[in-house]
Write a structure and sequence with these properties.
single chain; five-stranded parallel sheet; binds shikimate-3-phosphate
Length: 168
């Protein structure tokens, strides 16, 4: 099985969908942000705040590379900005991974971001988050599989739709 990476904006549902897809495919699920936290002893939010976004992005790319080098099959939930970096997209293509974009409307993402206790330094204000969302959309659209999401679907329904796409 090819490794599958799930991408999309903060709050689009990446981790929940990745977990359920991995369960159905009977492969491990890996959350890139959790890997970064384990490797660095600091969360992505702490790294962005304390070391700066550029430093965080370098760590993110190194962590992704280490992960892909093990060449095991799995489902990876990326952080919302990981796919935006061309170096990461090149790595993902180079390791022959299948990319899935959860295309969730900004309003739904924002509702989740603002309701969450998770610290997201790049999604602090609605204006900043929406600008970032619009700038990123063209990059997310480069993913191989596009899953339009309206926010009313269950995780099960979304994963079933991904499975249909995987069989095509
Ligand atoms: C980021 C998203 C976060 C995390 C970091 C940066 C981004 O992950 O990687 O705070 O640039 O969109 P989630 O998408 O899981 O919130």
């Amino acid at each position: 099985m090819q490794t599958i990476v799930i991408t999309g904006f903060m709050g689009c549902g990446k981790s929940n969908v990745a977990r359920e897809l991995a369960r159905r495919l009977d492969v491990p699920m890996i959350d890139l942000d959790d890997r970064i936290t384990a490797r660095e002893g600091r969360t992505p939010a702490q790294l962005i705040t304390e070391a700066g976004e550029d430093q965080f992005r370098a760590i993110e790319t190194n962590t992704l590379l280490e992960l892909l080098q093990t060449k095991e099959s799995r489902v990876i939930a990326l952080g919302g900005g990981a796919w935006i970096e061309s170096a990461n997209r090149d790595l993902i293509a180079g390791y022959d991974c299948l990319s899935v974009w959860l295309d969730t409307p900004f309003a739904v993402c924002w509702e989740r971001i603002s309701a969450s206790t998770e610290d997201r330094p790049l999604g602090k204000t609605i204006e900043d988050a929406e600008t970032r969302f619009n700038l990123r959309r063209p990059f997310y659209s480069l993913a191989r599989i596009h899953i339009p999401v309206d926010g009313t679907e269950t995780v099960d329904q979304l994963v079933s739709r991904i499975e249909v796409e995987l069989k095509k």
